[in-house]
Amino acid sequence: MKNKDSFSSTTIRSVLAEVYAADKASKDGKVPSSNIFTLIKKAQKRRLDAATKFIEATRADLAEKEQKEADFLSTFLPPLLPEAEVVRILEEIISQQRAEGDQPKKTLSKVLPVFYAKVEKTAVDPVFVKDKILELVSN
């Protein structure tokens, strides 16, 4: 803000407004940092979705702005765990949790809580994790 960079300050202010709203909504008045990462991730996803819609509507100028904001927000997010590491952890958990004859959905409901107890939610892509569990249990 001191640098008078209106792009960065506007983007940060929009996310800060969401954080302040979450602070007010929480019982103890402060949102944990993992929830802040989740808020930033949601804001980034909204901008990526908006960019896709703008591209479909042939509004490349607006799509570029949304993409730029999404890229800027990604600098505030922690790096994701490598896919190989996620698969290794999942295979380990599945081998411990899976009972013979379990349906894939039932195994999914057993594996997810154990996985997220070991790994921070902000360190992985939840869609990838779910898809990978279903892929591993169906094999």
TrEMBL record:
Enumerate the subcellular locations listed in this protein's record, separating them with semicolons. Mitochondrion
Q: Does the keyword Cell membrane apply?
A: no
Which keywords belong to this entry?
Answer: Mitochondrion
Q: Which GO terms describe its molecular function?
A: carbon-nitrogen ligase activity, with glutamine as amido-N-donor
Q: Which Pfam families match?
A: YqeY (PF09424)
Family assignment from sequence similarity: Belongs to the AIM41 family.
Q: Which organism is it from?
A: Dentipellis fragilis
Q: Tell me which InterPro entries the record gives.
A: Asn/Gln_tRNA_amidoTrase-B-like (IPR003789), YqeY/Aim41 (IPR019004), YqeY/Aim41_N (IPR042184)
Return the GO cellular component terms, semicolon-separated: mitochondrion
What name does this protein carry? Altered inheritance of mitochondria protein 41
Q: Does the keyword Mitochondrion apply?
A: yes
- Output the Gene3D superfamilies linked to this UniProt entry: Uncharacterised protein YqeY/AIM41 PF09424, N-terminal domain (1.10.1510.10)
Q: Which gene encodes it?
A: AIM41
